[in-house]
Structures are given as structure tokens and as C-alpha cells.
Amino acid sequence: RHDLTELIELLRDHDVPFPNDLDDIRGLTPFATEWRYAEPPPESEEPLDRAWAASCIQRTKQWAFQFVPHP
């Protein structure tokens, strides 16, 4: 599964509290689905804001690490 909206909804459906302030991670779904197995986006698409994407990923990882045992 690569649809981040669907994954967030599954977490919430199973009483895993996904913070509302991380909802913007949904904006990365096209990179996980449409463009993962196909051609890159056409040039007319808005360029990826790399700082925003890195921030979304970092904040989501920090949240997720609380559920994963660390070595």
C-alpha cells in the first residue's frame, strides 16, 4: 500500500492516534504511488519543495519511532 491517506485512515481506524499536524504528509502520496512505478512527472507539474518534503518525512519518522523498538 502506497496511498498515505489510506494508511493514515487505517491507523486512526485502529485507534492509533496519528497527529493532525502530520496530515500534510498526504501530499507525498503521488511520489509513493503514481511516480514510483511510472515515468517522472511532466515538466508542467509544480516542482517538489524539497525542504517541505524533508520536514514532513522527518516529523513523521519522529512520531513513528515511538512505536518501533530501538536497538
Poorly predicted regions are: none
Helical segment count: 3
Shape: globular
The helical percent reads 40-55%
Radius of gyration: 14 Å
Range of strand content: under 5%
Structural class: mainly alpha
Number of strands: 0
Question: First CA to last CA: what distance?
Answer: 26 Å
- Secondary-structure element series: HHH
For the sheet with most strands, the description reads:
none
Provide a compact summary of the structure.
The chain is mainly alpha-helical and 71 residues long. The protein contains 3 helices and no strands. The mean pLDDT is 82.
List the helices and strands and how they pair.
Layout: H1 4-13, H2 29-32, H3 50-64
Could you explain how this protein is built, in words?
With 71 residues, this protein is mainly alpha-helical. The protein is built from 3 helices and no strands. The mean pLDDT is 82.
Task: Summarize this structure as a short list of keywords or feature phrases.
71 residues; mainly alpha
